[in-house]
Amino acid sequence: MTGDLSLLMYHRVLPAADPLLPGTPDQATFARQLRLVKRWFRVLPLPLALDLLDQHRLPARALAITFDDGYADNAELALPILQDLGLSATFFIASAYLDGGRMWNDAIIDHVRQVPAGMLDGGSAGLGLLPVHTPAQRCQAIAQMLAALKYRPFGERQAIADQLAPPGAAPLMMTSHQVAQLHRAGMTIGGHTHRHPILATLNDAAARQDIAENRQRLAQLTGAPVDLFAYPNGKPGADFDVRHPALLRDLGFRAAVTTSPGITRAGTDRLLLPRYTPWQADSPRFLLGLMMNRRRSSPQQ
Question: How far apart (Å, rounded) are the C-alpha atoms in residues 130 and 141?
């Protein structure tokens, strides 16, 4: 008999709360969440958790921590907290944005952030005028623009983001050195494609190339094999489809994670592992959300 596995998903950890990133924890909130996780769950490195699951020896309330994309604050802020608590995490990194790159969604957020209060012209995203008088309206404008651009062809989406990005924005993504630093600290590095495209919008050859290039780059930086993967955006049937688990299997990946909520059990497809995103900042709702997520089945069950 084996237990079940919860996977906790983060993207960033901020130095202080940001009204335009309301679902993203600051470092104090992140530390508080991890202390709760350490108290109530058996936190394991993801590779070890998968080993124990395969051996039917996974302990009760097992949990693994994951991060997507490769933001520098993962190394600068999250890593010291993980180390202080004696915890491990897996970092899924999009390699094209290392060393000064910027993801398209961050360019959109920066654009909305710097527009003066009033009305924002959303024409480049196929939208009309969007009010940005208050932080709540700016959040809504960001959500509308991201939704309007998300499934555009990769090149078109990137061109719009580049056009809107304000000049001189501070770099947000890791350096190559920080990737190696995470690996040396005992963290796991996983693949997340090279350019972070929506895989469902690519042909098979382009998807294979993006995944393989990312894997090769990360292996060069760490000197270790890369056999875990996170689907960009990660929603089954929308952001990726049945071709992509088959492609990962063909490339020899051991497991892949999605953004669908739920828990992993012995019968869960290892290339379709669900994860839980903790949107709740306060401790009681954070813990309740995690416990409620354990009542879900994985999408395959």
Answer: 6
Is 199 found in the same domain as 278? yes
- Structural domains of the chain, count: 2
Supply the range of the domain harboring residue 40: 5-100+172-293
**Cα 172 to Cα 164: distance, rounded to the nearest angstrom:** 17
Residue 90 sits in the same domain as residue 179: yes
Tens-binned pLDDT, residue by residue, of the chain (301 aa): 578 999 999 999 999 999 999 999 999 999 999 999 999 999 999 999 999 999 999 999 999 999 999 999 999 999 999 999 999 999 999 999 999 999 999 999 999 999 999 999 999 999 999 999 999 999 999 999 999 999 999 999 999 999 999 998 889 999 999 999 999 999 999 999 999 999 999 999 999 999 999 999 999 999 999 999 999 999 999 999 999 999 999 999 999 999 999 999 999 999 999 999 998 878 889 999 998 998 875 554 3
Domain's final residue, options 119, 139, 164 = 164
Residues 40 and 82 in one domain: yes
Residues 158 and 21 in one domain: no
0.70 exceeded by pTM? yes
Domain shared by 179 and 259, yes or no: yes
Residues 25 and 89 in one domain: yes
- Together in a domain, 136 and 188: no
